[in-house]
Design a protein that fits this description.
Blueprint (H helix, E strand, L loop, with lengths): L2 E5 L2 E3 L5 E8 L6 E8 L6 E6 L6 E3 L7 E6 L4 E6 L8 E9 L6 H4 L8 E2 L3 E5 L2
Parallel strand pairs: 2-11
Antiparallel strand pairs: 1-3, 3-8, 4-5, 4-9, 5-6, 7-8, 9-10, 9-11
């Protein structure tokens, strides 16, 4: 059974940092593209970042580019999202999601589309507030 479990969320002051992790099990992790989405109250879910199965290609939403960094360890079946210089507008529930690499032809073009992803974690709350 494919499972994605997020961890590392919490409360942080503006300008602070958090590191989210997504632990995967139940499937061949190295064959899957992994993405981070977020959803704030009253807003639609949006793509934040994405990493190809090999880790060589990444996508970042414009508003987080330069502040967030995504990485993966295929030996440990984990993906991390390092979030620096956090802002109140980064407050949301963050989800990791997976899609087979055979269904993802372009990380840059397809990653922001949440409808393409078939597997989802339960989410981790990130709150940026003073």
């Amino acid at each position: 059974q494919l499972q994605l479990v997020e961890s590392g969320g919490g409360l942080v002051q503006p300008g602070g940092s958090l590191r989210l992790s997504c632990a995967a099990s139940g499937f061949t992790f190295s064959y899957y593209v992994i993405a981070w989405f977020r959803q704030a109250p009253g807003k639609e879910r949006e793509g934040v970042s994405c990493i190809s199965s090999s880790g060589t290609s990444t996508y970042y939403k414009d508003s987080v580019n330069g502040r967030f960094a995504i990485s993966r360890d295929n030996a440990k079946n984990t993906v991390s999202l390092q979030m620096n210089s956090l802002k109140p507008e980064d407050t949301a529930v963050y989800y990791c999601a997976a899609i087979s690499m055979y269904r993802m032809t372009s990380v840059q073009r397809m990653c922001p589309n949440s409808a393409l992803f078939n597997y989802w974690g339960q989410g981790a709350q990130v709150t940026v507030s003073s």
